[in-house]
């Protein structure tokens, strides 16, 4: 896990000499070790049982993989739309923190809307995060919410983009769930039936901004965690994402080390979340990850990310499914429905009310169990 490894799907599609950098940004340093995520092809996944098998292997072993979206109609649309979100992000954050704070809904028990810079604990030392983000709820923009939140006008001006991007992201999620359902040997449509587009859920688009950190004062931008939902689609152009590989993928005699995931142009990064681990009794992996300052010259740039989080429908209980190749066993504690679980996980490290002391922040971090 300490050297870059690229696993080819088809030699004609994947040549190591290909340039996957982003021309308008500083390159990812060539001497920085990167995580050997499998690189899969969406176009191949539609027709190749071998590619489908590699996807299932990645879902069990690491829970992270690259997906090449080129040469596929749906993939090309997602690439185009994600590019539009990267163009939108600087304009959106020009609204300023004072204006965006009007759309922070944590005090009414919601993780939707705005999260300000330095408002969540990220490590055992009690440090606070170094980013801000905005969660755009699927349900508000699809007319599903009983009491939709108010959002900045710039988002309503881009309703068509938001709805189309959600539709396409959900289409990709459905395709991936279909493959997993087949490999798990579950009754047809089982996983898909837990993630219907027009039912209430915590699905959302997240636009993240991480400004450059002073070289003498660099901290974790987003603390170590696993994602809370089912599948995550991530687009970023600068480094910063790191994964901690499981012991099973770490060379004998060595401890797992935090390793950068290098962004690749034309690809998204996909990872599985806790819901898939719970549904499959631990067979599928939700791997721990964090976000730090980008390496090398990239650290001088503002880092934007565009994320789509797919979550089970609100009323779905997160527990092991029966049947297929899912191992028998007991669930890990009292099962919650998806809405309760996501809310608990998303808000537990956020500051509420009066700012906490450093000792209180440390205690808050310990209570989450993330330090273990």
UniProtKB/TrEMBL annotation:
- Which chain positions lie within coiled-coil regions? none
Against InterPro entries, the record matches this protein to: DIOX_N, IPNS-like_FE2OG_OXY, IPNS-like_sf, Iron_ascorbate_oxido_reductase, Oxoglu/Fe-dep_dioxygenase_dom
Family to which the UniProt record says this protein belongs = Belongs to the iron/ascorbate-dependent oxidoreductase family.
Q: Which residues form the Fe2OG dioxygenase domain?
A: 201-312
Among its keywords, does the record have Cell membrane? Answer: no
Q: Origin organism of this chain? A: Hyaloscypha bicolor E
- List, alphabetically, the PANTHER family matched: 2-OXOGLUTARATE (2OG) AND FE(II)-DEPENDENT OXYGENASE SUPERFAMILY PROTEIN-RELATED
The protein depicted here goes by the name Putative oxidoreductase
Any one Gene Ontology BP term: small molecule biosynthetic process
| Name of a matching Pfam family | DIOX_N
Q: Name one GO molecular function term.
A: metal ion binding
| Key words, A-Z | Iron, Metal-binding, Oxidoreductase
């Amino acid at each position: 896990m300490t050297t870059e490894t690229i696993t080819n799907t088809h030699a004609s599609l994947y040549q190591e000499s290909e340039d996957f950098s982003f021309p308008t940004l500083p390159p990812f340093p060539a001497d920085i070790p990167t995580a050997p995520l499998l690189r899969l092809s969406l176009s191949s996944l539609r027709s190749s049982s071998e590619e489908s098998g590699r996807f299932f292997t990645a879902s069990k072993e690491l829970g992270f993989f690259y997906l090449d979206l080129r040469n596929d109609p749906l993939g090309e649309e997602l690439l185009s739309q994600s590019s539009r979100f990267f163009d939108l992000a600087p304009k959106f954050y020009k609204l300023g923190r004072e204006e965006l704070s009007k759309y922070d809904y944590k005090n009414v028990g919601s993780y939707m809307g705005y999260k300000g810079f330095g408002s969540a604990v990220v490590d055992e030392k009690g440090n606070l995060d170094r980013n801000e983000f905005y969660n755009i709820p699927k349900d508000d923009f699809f007319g599903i919410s009983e009491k939709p939140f108010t959002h900045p006008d710039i988002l309503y001006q881009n309703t068509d983009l938001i709805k189309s991007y959600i539709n396409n992201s959900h289409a990709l999620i459905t395709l991936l769930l279909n493959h997993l359902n087949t490999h798990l040997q579950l009754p047809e449509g089982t996983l898909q039936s837990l993630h219907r587009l027009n039912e209430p859920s915590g699905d959302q688009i997240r636009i993240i901004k991480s400004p450059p950190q002073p070289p003498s004062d660099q901290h974790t931008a987003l603390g170590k965690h696993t994602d809370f939902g089912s599948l995550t689609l991530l687009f970023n152009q600068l480094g910063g994402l790191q994964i901690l590989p499981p012991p099973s993928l770490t060379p004998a005699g060595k401890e797992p080390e935090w390793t950068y995931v290098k962004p690749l142009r034309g690809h998204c990064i996909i990872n599985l979340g806790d819901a898939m681990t719970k549904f499959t009794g631990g067979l599928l992996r939700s791997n721990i990850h964090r976000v730090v300052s980008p390496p090398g010259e990239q650290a001088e740039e503002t880092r934007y990310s565009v994320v789509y989080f797919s979550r089970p429908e609100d009323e779905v209980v997160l527990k092991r499914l029966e049947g297929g190749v899912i191992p028998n066993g007991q669930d890990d504690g009292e099962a919650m429905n998806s809405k309760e679980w996501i809310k608990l996980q998303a808000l537990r490290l956020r500051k509420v009310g009066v700012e906490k002391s450093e000792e209180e922040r440390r205690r808050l971090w310990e209570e989450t169990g993330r330090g273990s």
